[in-house]
Amino acid sequence: MEEKSNGTLQKILSVAEKEFLDKGFRGASLREIVKSAGVTTGAFYGYFKSKEELFDALVKEHAEYILGIYDSILVEFEKMPLEQQIDSMDDYSSLGFQRMFEYAWEHKMPFRLILKSADGTKYENFIQTLSQKDIDSTDDFYNLLESQGKSVERIDPLIEQIVITGTFSSFFTLILLDIPKNEAERGLSQMFRFYRGGWNSLMHFDD
Hints:
Number of helices: 9
Order of helices and strands: HHHHHHHHH
Number of strands: 0
Largest sheet: none
Strand content: under 5%
Shape: elongated
Oligomer: single chain
Distance between the termini: 68 Å
Radius of gyration: 21 Å
């Protein structure tokens, strides 16, 4: 009985994944999902209370995992003394991007749903949420540098938001491209060097 129940759940999720990807969250039809999955409406509601909860089941774990990677890297970074933070900034940024890349590469479908089909859900601003974490941590780092008498050229807040949001958008676009992994990794490396070079120039780390 449990095996049949698990099979039904997986069928619903599989059908829903395709429906959401094809039509987006707003356009997806629970009636079509139920029909294509071969279950009754009553059976469906035994698993999920709403379309929102169904979408959540497909992406929540993966969205939270990526945000958790960022948070864990930041916690490690902020434990270090300032001079060590300056010396290790590139390494920690690279490590964060690499960990997120490896996870997202192995779970492409949930991120396709988040980036292409999440309009109308709490995930529609996922890129902005991740970007805001980076904006906040960058501003905190600016403040720490200035409090220690370091010279800092602050980037205009609007430009900061555009650059950081663009970086994460490019990051996920690269992952979702239909290209070999080694090609995506090469692109990630080049993107990171370009991104980091700009920040180092503004913060005068190369002076």
